[in-house]
């Protein structure tokens, strides 16, 4: 069995949905499970609805209307018959969104986020499943929340592998299945999410539990590149990457592969293919068991909107294990992700991601015990397999705030 994952760009409009069909017909879809993301920028639209709910409820109807209009434009092109049942199915999902926003009493932003944002995936898979049936491709629509079970750490949950494995065993491998990425559910059947870009992780979870032959992530790029083309002008396709190398790249923030995706695949040696949905017959990139990376070229990774903090002791005492342990407890408490650390006898520098907005509260606590200097909106560049030319490319014109170098990897924090 194969698992295919289609991201938002691959289903962003009616033509994109038709292209998914083209891909399936070219590469086959027997014994295949499709994991599909929300269409286009729908997740951003869902976040706008959530922000309106917390900040200005009068904006909610307009935001929901934009969501409806976007999906109706796609549906009207795919289903010219206005009496098709898909229109009622979409209305049911929209009514569920509005209903939750009325009856919800929880002030917990992360809980509300997870209950609303996942409707993007429910809408996209409902539409695509109906379209496949409309053109004669039989398929089974699955609600992934009935299969992937998690804890209740909303927006960044941990998978209950034992229960998930038990549930996934019930999936019929003999038919074409379609389900949602990014989502799960907790013990109370409330929706949970696996983190942004978590659809890749969904594909890996299901592949692991199904003992799949492979996972293919369909992208708008030819495969895994040595740099993000949004930020770097010259990029090169990586033909083959070992699990170990791919995990290193993902750890440092490579955007093509979700950091959690590779671990379950490696455990069962399930190969991961990253291919172009524009040219589906091209080879793309294969991640699997092997040595290193081919071709071996410098790989550039950038994380924007980071925060660099330098902490030093108020009394010039050493920063030792107890101090560092306390710092990491605070990072965990405020949901701060640490991307780089560097320490000396009396100072500790750390580059962090303020994804959950805990920086202000963290700084307040830190300043009671440390001298704190921090820089916001910095960029963290990582170069794997660096050489002098690669370093010169990044250092040119940037104000360097911190550098950390190993035998294979160099990291630079710049303004």
Topology (elements, then pairings):
Blueprint: E1 2-6, H1 14-27, E2 32-36, H2 42-55, H3 60-78, H4 86-103, H5 109-117, H6 119-134, E3 140-141, H7 161-168, E4 177-180, E5 183-185, E6 191-193, H8 199-210, E7 214-219, E8 240-242, H9 243-252, H10 262-267, E9 272-276, E10 285-288, E11 293-294, E12 299-313, H11 321-333, E13 337-343, E14 347-353, H12 359-366, E15 370-384, H13 388-395, E16 400-405, E17 409-414
Parallel strand pairs: 1-2, 1-7, 2-4, 3-4, 7-9, 8-10
Antiparallel strand pairs: 5-6, 8-11, 9-10, 12-14, 12-15, 13-14, 15-17, 16-17
Radius of gyration: 23 Å
The residue fraction in helices comes out at: 25-40%
Determine the number of helices (DSSP H or I, runs of at least 4 residues): 13
Largest sheet: 9 strands, mixed
Mean pLDDT: 93
Number of strands: 17
Anisotropy-based shape = globular
Q: Could you spell the SSE succession in H and E letters? A: EHEHHHHHEHEEEHEEHHEEEEHEEHEHEE
Give the uncertain stretches in residue-range form.
none
Distance between the termini: 47 Å
Widest beta sheet: strand line-up:
3-4-2-1-7-9-10-8-11
